[in-house]
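re: ur question from yesterday

yeah so i grabbed the chain u mentioned. its 188 aa long if i counted rite. heres the sequnce exactly as i have it in my notes:
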Amino acid sequence: MRSAVLAVLGAALPLALAAQSPPGACTHRGTGADLAKRASPLDSVTATVDGATLKVCYGRPSARGRVMLGGQNPFGQPWRLGANEPTRLTLPFAADVAGVRVEPGTYSLYVVPQATSWEVHVNKIVERWGIPINEQVQAQDVGKGTVPVETLAQPVEQLTLSLVAGSPTELVVEWEKTRVRIPIRKAG
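ran it thru and got these structure tokens back, copy pasting raw so excuse formatting
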């Protein structure tokens, strides 16, 4: 009985967090104390485009001597683009994300990294744990696009995302010796 109650509460928690949080808020499982204990802290980045704010919420894992891209996160396999909950992009306007047309709203992002390019997937499911990225999750993809990989001279220890406003705005991902620029174009 107790495990059934815990299962129901665990399934309801993301919905409760979403209901209590304003649009674009970085929701997470557990209490603030639980969040403070995580090895991969929750972070967010914003950019303003034509007076409207875009936001990305993500978990920031560190390499800690491990080979992550092409190692622990194997090439050719879906990766949540962060740690813990899925990486979420909130758009106040219709846009193209890596060539994928989306309406205003919040989407999860995951990638399929390769050595020279990444497939960027835009997905409808935002309130779930980041893994597994199985057939049920993939069935909710809005679409996918491909972006090239750049090699950095100096390694980046902790996954770092930034939003660079411009034409297009770019979601820049840096980790280890990899940089990827995901274009976000406001739909006209």
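noticed a couple things. The chain has a mean pLDDT of 86. also Residues 2-186 form one domain.
anyway ttyl
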